[in-house]
Amino acid sequence: MRVLMLSWEYPPHLVGGLGRHVAELSLALAEQQIIVHVVTPTTEPENAFTSLEKGVMIHRVFAPAMKLEANIYNQAIAVNQILCDYVGRMDEVFDIIHVHDWLTGFAGMDLQMSLKRPLVATIHATERGRGCGHINNDLQQAIDGAEQRLIERANRVIVCSHYMLHEVQTFFHTPTSRLEVVFNGVNLDDLRNGHSKEQLIAFRARCADPDERIVFAVARLVHEKGFHRLVEAAPRILAEFPQTRIIIAGRGPEANNLKRQAYHLGVADRVDFVGFISDEQRDEYYQTASCAVFPSLYEPFGIVALEAMALGCPVVVSEVGGLSEIVKHEETGVTIYPDNADSVAWGVLHILQDPSRALTYAARAYQAVEELYNWSRIARLTRGVYRRTVDKYLAPVSI
User: What is the CATH code for 188-372?
Assistant: First the structure.
């Protein structure tokens, strides 16, 4: 089978988790004898080239509109036209088209018509979901409309959790027969190629004193990640475990608000905002922290929790979205009420009070990641979606 995959981002150009998902999925599909061509935009002409990378053909297409147009919706329309024109010049025949989120949906729908091939769309999140069910401005309205058109036009829609299946059904009235749940995953081989014990000891010494416990959180600093509730919980955590250092990694529009909040609560000396960190640094934190906390208000899946679990870090997560499907309370981690600082504090303290219990959770969590969230399994499930979609598309229409 030959797959045309369109993605707004692809390593090394990464904005969020979508690009990593596409990279890992396309590689795993290639390992299962699927021919995959990924077409993705780049803002730099010197980076516009085609290359075979680990069995996947990557087409990086120069798209200056990604820099010139500030409005993301208008930017997407302009970039999609460039991608569509590029595919039109390719001397390739594909069996199926696969797009990820609305950002490349315009090109996907156009190519569905011009190439006369079925379209699969993976919906990683929705604009309405990020807004807790609300659309508040013209830009959100435009994005919501683009999502609706893509979901209506796609022959099959993949979502990353049962929570997202319900969300797409509720918001867009999509019939269950066109929806497929395929979970996200992590690359255990990459994560296992970590650091020596000595390197981790040295890293920890740079972050905290020997008698301090590390509570770690990482994500884009936006309201929906719920970090304001973690900061609000800090005084209660520190009251019981004063030698705790809360480390929050990431950047985003809420960064200054969170720093001011920590200052006004009198915990600024115990809450460290370390800004952007590399994947390598993230993994070092996971391997040296007492726990990782993800107090999200909205989380379609929660890949960050999987990465922590894969590295043996006990997790505390909101009972929301995909997180509630990944983490089983007091089995593979601790779940807490979303948007509730008292519950955040309780969850962290539950881990800190009994390290041996926390390690039991972490061991079970690692086993779950290894069995359920590996890319080989995810690629097999995705290949099944492709096959069912193509078979139905080619099936004769009964009269």
Answer: 3.40.50.2000
